[in-house]
Amino acid sequence: MVSAADVRRADVVIAGEQIAAVGTGVGTPDDEVLDATGCLVIPGAVDVHTHMDMEVGVTRSADDFLSGTVAAACGGTTTVIDFATAYRGESAAHGLAIWHAKARGRAVVDYGFHMTVTELTGDADDLVAEMAEAGVTSFKLYMTYPDRLMVPDEVILELMRAAGEHGAMVSLHCEDDATVASLRSEALSAGRTEPRWHAWSRPPSAETEAVKRAVRMAEETGAPLYIVHLSSAGALEQVRLARERGVGVFAETCPQYLYLSAERYEDISERAARFVCAPPLRDPWHQEELWEGLRSGALQVVATDHCPFTAADKKSGLTGGGWGDFTQIPGGLPGIETRLALVYQKVAEGVLSAPQWVDRCCTTPAKLFGLHPRKGTLEPGSDADVVVFDPGARRPLIPERLHMKIGYSPYEDVVVEGWPAHVFSRGRLVARAGEAVDAPGWGTWLRRGPSGSMADP
Ligand code: MN
Questions:
Q1: What pTM, to 2 d.p., does this model score?
Q2: CA-CA-CA-CA torsion sign (292, 298, 300, 304)
Q3: What is the CA(141)–ligand 1 centre distance, in A?
Q4: 37 and 397 in contact (C-beta within 8 Å)?
Q5: Residue 129: which H helix or E strand, with range?
Q6: Distance 305 CA to ligand 1 centre (A)
Q7: Contact 387/39 with Cβ under 8 angstroms?
Q8: Ligand 1 ion: nearby residues, β-carbon < 5 Å
Q9: Which domains does the chain show, CATH number per domain?
Q10: Contacts 24+ apart (CB under 8 A), 153-159
C-alpha cells in the first residue's frame, strides 16, 4: 500500500462505499478477498483539471461526462473536477446548473466543479459565498483569450481577495496577453499560419511574465493562488522563489508538458494541429525542469487539462470549414486516461518515489481542493476509491487500447510499464485491467470543503 507518506504491506478493508480498516490482521474470514500481491494499492487518482462536453466554437470537447469518466476510471482516476463556466452575460448559478445537467446520471466516477468566471458584475464576496454555499470553492480566471474569457487584473485581485477571506482559491491560466497578441499579429501579418507559429506566438516568456504578475497579486492579497498547466522552466522558477518567500502559491503541470515537446509542431500541419494547446508544448529541456519541480515539491500537482478533440474536429477548426490559421484550431489535448501511468514511469525509473507519485496525482490535489480525507487517501472513513496498480502490466498507449473519444493518441509511440488492474469507486469495481465495468451514473457530485490549504479543514 502506497500513501503520500510511505509504502507498507497492509490490507485494506472495504465495507459498503467506505474504507473500514487498514492494516495487518484486519478483516474477517467472511470477507471477499482480492489478492493484490505484487501490486501497488493506492488511493484513486484525483484529476483537478478537465473539460468535458465543453462548447468551443462550432464544436465541443469530444468526451462527455460518460466517456470521459469511463476513460478516467480505466486509467485509475476516480475523482475529477471539471470547469463549470459562466460566460459573459451569464450568472455563475446558471453556468453551474448547465454543468450539473451535463454530468448528472452519466459520470462513472465522482466529480466536482470549479467555477470559471469571465466577468465580475456584482460583489466578489457575494459570489464567493454563493458558490461556497453551492459546494464550489475554487474559481478559474484567464489572463488571456480577451474575446471571451480574459478578465483584467483588477478582477483577479478582487476575486482573489474575496476567495482568500472565505476559504476559496483562485486558479489562473497564466499567459501574458499583450505578448501573445503582439506576436500573433506579427506572425499572421507575415502569412505564418501553420501550427508551429501558435507555439512561437505563446513563448515561455509570456508565461513567466504572467506568473510573476499572478504571484505579486497573491502576495498583495495574501490569498492562495493555484497556477494551472504550468509548462516552462522560467515560470516554475517564479513559483519556486515565491514559495521560498512563503507566498501561498501552488502549481500543477500536465503530462503533455512532461512528455511531449514543440518538435510535434514540425510535423505536417494536419498532425501538428493535434498538439495545439495553450500554453503550447515547449522545447524538450523544460521537461527535465518540470520533473525536478515535481521531485522537489516546487510543483505540487499533475493534472491533465483533458480537453480532447477528434482529428476531424482539429481539422475542421473552430468555424467548421477548415482552419485558415493556427488561431482557428481548437486547442487542447486528451489525457485523463493516461496520466497516472505516465507519471508512474518516473517511479519505475527512480526519478520519483512511489509516495511522491501518489502525493502529486492523488493526495495533494484532494487536499488543495477541499476533498481530503474523503478522497486522495486510504484511511478508515475515506471513500473506498482504490486502485490496485499492477507495475508489471505493459500497455501501449494506442487508441485501440484507450477509451477517450478521439480516435488517436498523442502517446501512440509509448508503451507504459504499469497499469491499474482493479479500480474501485466508492467500493464498486468500475474498471478491470484497463477495461470499463458498466457503471454509468455511479459517480456522484462532490460538495467540496475549503480550498487553498494543504491542511484539512
Ligand atoms: Mn484547461
A1: 0.98
A2: negative
A3: 10
A4: no
A5: helix 124-133
A6: 5
A7: no
A8: 305
A9: 43-436 (3.20.20.140)
A10: 153/213, 153/217, 155/117, 155/119, 155/120, 156/214, 156/217, 157/217, 157/220, 157/221, 158/120, 158/124, 159/117, 159/120, 159/124, 159/127, 159/128
**pLDDT bucket at 7, cuts 50 / 70 / 90:** very high
The alpha carbon of 304 and the centre of ligand 1 are apart by a number of angstroms equal to 8
DSSP state of 33: -
DSSP 166: T
C-alpha 48 to ligand 1 mean position (Å): 10
The number of residues in the chain equals: 457
Q: How far is the CA of 51 from the centre of ligand 1 (A)?
A: 7
385-410 pLDDT tens trace:
999 999 999 999 999 999 999 999 99
In terms of phi and psi (left: phi > 0; alpha: psi -120 to 50; beta: otherwise), the region of 23 is left
Q: How many other C-beta atoms lie within 10 A of the C-beta of residue 222? A: 12
Distance from the CA of 59 to the center of ligand 1, in angstroms?
Answer: 16
Coil vs helix vs strand at 253:
strand
